[in-house]
Specification:
The protein is α/β, with parallel strands linked by helices and 390 residues long. 29% of the residues lie in helices and 28% in strands. Strands 1, 4, 5, 6, 7, 10, 11 and 12 form an 8-stranded mixed beta sheet that branches. Helix 3 (83-93) crosses helix 5 (168-179) and helix 5 (168-179) packs across helix 6 (189-195).
Amino acid sequence: MSGPTTAAVIVAAGAGLRVGGELPKQYQMLAGQSVLARSIKAFADHPGIAHVQVVIGADHSQLYDAATNGLDLPAAVIGGETRQASVKAGLEALASLAPDYVLIHDAARPFVSPDIISHVIANLDRHDGALPALPLVDTIKRANGSVITETVDRKALYAAQTPQGFHYGKICGAHDAASNDSDAEFTDDASIAEWAGLSVVLVAGAAQNRKLTTADDMTQAEQMLTNTLPDIRVGHGYDVHAFEAGDHVILCGVKIPHDAKLKGHSDADVAMHTLTDAILGAISEGDIGAHFPPSDDQWKAADSAIFLREAARLVAERGGLIAHCDLTIICEAPKLRPHVDAMRQSLADILGLPAGRVSVKATTSEKLGFTGRREGIAATATATVRLPIE
């Protein structure tokens, strides 16, 4: 006889701008993967979770698609103006599945462990709800403005985390009732469950399961992840493409006017092909031709960003990250220096890296060889990759 089914709702609808940067924090990159993707994978990879439902903001569709590229997920649902409304939308999206249990998790907690998820689920067989929490260790003061009025006894105080787990039908009923009470204010789902009279138990949380809120949080998280990847590898790539009749070249995904184009089976982006080979070399995964053979017609005129994204995906699949890329493009013409910044940003966007981790240089061969005779373009690249020890 099969046990109860458990679904997860990942809440990612907030603006999340306190961490700084142009993107909401759930879509920012953390050691080569988006914060949101890391949170989703914690549940998608857990054997006790049968379904993962993500809730996003109304204008987040493109950000969501980019952040979750390569993950097999159902369509995201659009949240509301408050966290409470967003969770309710996520719960309603599960109605056709009718799971026994549901875990509700903040996307900004990407380091939740399998043990915490398991402990929350395990406690739902004898309680209406369960949530991870940490006892407060600092002395707690109550104040009127800046003046202390009381020292609060901390012995029975806990800091709540997510995922917060509940019986699906019971938490749906609690959310329905709470949405009809305009005077009630709730900061998490456990408070809604408590208000509705449900029994909620605490399980052990973890300091690692912290919510990323500030720029310092993001910096510390990046450092923590990097320190767990001690296997540093460097891959090298080299490629050449000849010119043929045309009016532009494509380098690093950037269209550059020229009196010829590059000849190749795909879009002939020699720079991107070279960098793809460098990344594949760093993880000992052969070369671009092994993954995307030119004899296969599906790659005819293909956007070379497909190849580069796949190389990056293979690194992420191993639990690693791309630390730095250095690319040199060799030709007499066209003049590339005015396009270097655009090429760097294009590669950074494709790889999900800060532009500061991508170097693009342009040089000539002093009119020597086939590049000197303006017969084509050559490129060479190195990629530094960090992996966990196997």
